[in-house]
Amino acid sequence: MSSIDSTRCPLCGENNQCAVTLGQDPSTCWCHQPDIVIDKVLLSKIPSVAQGKACICKQCVAFAAQSRQGEQANLNGLSSDAHLDSFFDTLKKS
Hints:
Layout: H1 40-43, H2 58-73, H3 80-93
InterPro entries: Cys_rich_CWC
Protein name: Cysteine-rich CWC
């Protein structure tokens, strides 16, 4: 069984730049900024073994936001959930 690296995004494996893991005040973290929205669909993608142990990175949050915007602009496209599944499946294969 592998341990969870709290400094890595559980979705893509990149550095999550979490203030808590850097020993900083949590209120200074990028995820606490007023323009950041982390939706439930994205949170549901975190593997259960990593929930509460590692934070999602800013890039995955940005991708999810772009995916939501793209879905709103294209009513005939895939759902944002399907976009995220496709994106993370691609990451897992690389």
